[in-house]
Specification:
The complex is a heterodimer of chains A (about 120) and B (about 110). With about 120 residues, chain A is mainly β. Helix content of chain A is about 5%, strand content about 50%. In chain A, strands 2, 4, 5, 6, 9, 10 and 11 form a 7-stranded mixed β-sheet that branches. Classes of the chains: A mainly beta (about 120), B mainly beta (about 110). The interface between A and B is medium-sized, with 31 and 28 residues.
């Protein structure tokens, strides 16, 4: 089974621009979560999508948004980029159908490294 | 902000030795997971332990969970140079396994 894929892998933008990152979950997984990793703040939860609906949102400004499509693929968008948005953005997918061990495991993609100049 | 703290922040050992990393958290959880990350790449899931379990094994990995102390440990036995990576514990502090709260991580270096 193919793993979680994220595109692009690397991105360089300038302050004020906007960016869209894409995530394709493992086949059959319907839940997608996004995380931001920075040296200063570590790994922080951004938001989670299931069935095209945002289920949970972390403590990030409204400049960070996302969506999920009917095929479970997800995108996240950051508008008006700031220098502090430079980070590794990780996407994770999981199967969500019933409570159990397999549904509680998140599988991560390789990440998109965003550099804001 | 990080809810979990990992100890030590960095650990350097010789190949063949055992490595132990600890994780503490602050509130009740349903499960705790350990992940490995190589050089800023994606996270690889290692093991999940539920709140009603005390110990779990997977190959050379052994994880313990003490809910009374709100702490967990990850033991890697007979370490190899390929085990060099950052190790993170993650909990479902929010009540959702799809909204993980990560510890600050332990950087493990295994010297050949």
């Amino acid at each position: 089974k193919a793993g979680v894929t994220q595109t692009p892998r690397y991105l360089i933008k300038t302050r004020g621009q906007q960016v869209t990152l894409s995530c394709s979950p493992i086949s059959g997984h319907r839940s997608v979560s996004w995380y931001q990793q920075t040296p200063g703040q570590g790994l922080q939860f951004l938001f989670e999508y299931f069935s095209e609906t945002q289920r949970n949102k972390g403590n990030f400004p409204g400049r960070f948004s996302g969506r999920q499509f009917s095929n479970s693929r997800s995108e996240m968008n950051v508008s008006t980029l700031e220098l502090g948005d430079s980070a590794l953005y990780l996407c994770a997918s999981s199967f969500w159908g019933y409570r159990g061990m397999d549904t509680d495991t998140q599988y991560f993609g390789p990440g998109t490294r965003l550099t804001v100049l | 902000s990080q809810q979990g703290e990992e100890d030590p922040q960095a650990l350097s050992i010789q190949e063949g030795e055992n490595a132990t990393m600890n994780c503490s958290y602050k509130t009740s959880i349903n499960n705790l997971q350990w992940y490995r990350q190589n050089s800023g790449r994606g996270l690889v899931h290692l093991i999940l332990i539920r709140s009603n379990e005390r110990e779990k094994h997977s190959g050379r990995l052994r994880v313990t969970l003490d809910t009374s102390k709100k702490s967990s440990s990850l033991l890697i036995t007979a370490s190899r140079a390929a085990d060099t990576a950052s190790y993170f514990c993650a909990t479902d502090l929010s009540g959702s396994a799809r909204q993980l709260t990560f510890g600050s991580g332990t950087q493990l270096t295994v010297l050949p």
